[in-house]
Specification:
Blueprint lengths: L2 H20 L5 H28 L6 H15 L5 H22 L5 H25 L1
Length: 134
């Protein structure tokens, strides 16, 4: 049930980590730090979703889910600029919130609260990324 979110957060963690390592430009120092915190947040969300799935005894093939995240990453490529990166992240964050809306009624109360918190954090990041883009 949480597989699409697991894939999305792993993709976003890899995407932002690559951008953190490879992008350069006049906003490097600030954006480099923003992305460092962001990929760390995505990794924590990924880990929470995986652990919740395992604890809830959902069928989970981590290798397959990670392959799907990497396949998406290969299609997306590394952004050419920080602006392109933040635009992509706004899109990804909206996707996260849409996925949460689709599945929330199928979840236990605890899982609903956890993914609700993930949606809340996503909306905060969306605001910050949009402010960064101007």
């Amino acid at each position: 049930m949480l597989n699409d979110l697991i894939i999305a957060f792993r993709f976003m963690q890899l995407y932002t980590h690559n951008a953190h390592n490879l992008l350069k430009g006049s906003t490097f120092f600030v954006d480099h730090e923003i992305l460092a915190g962001t990929y760390s947040d995505y990794e924590k969300a990924y880990d929470s979703l995986v652990e919740r799935s395992i604890g809830s005894e959902f069928k989970l093939d981590l290798i397959e889910l990670q392959k799907k995240a990497v396949e998406s990453l290969a299609e997306e490529k590394v952004p050419k600029s920080f602006e392109e990166c933040f635009q992509s992240l706004v899109y990804c964050e909206k996707y996260i919130c849409e996925e949460i809306e689709k599945i929330k009624e199928k979840c236990s109360e605890g899982t609903r609260q956890m993914i609700g918190n993930l949606a809340d954090q996503s909306e905060v990041r969306q605001y910050k990324f949009k402010q960064r883009l101007g």
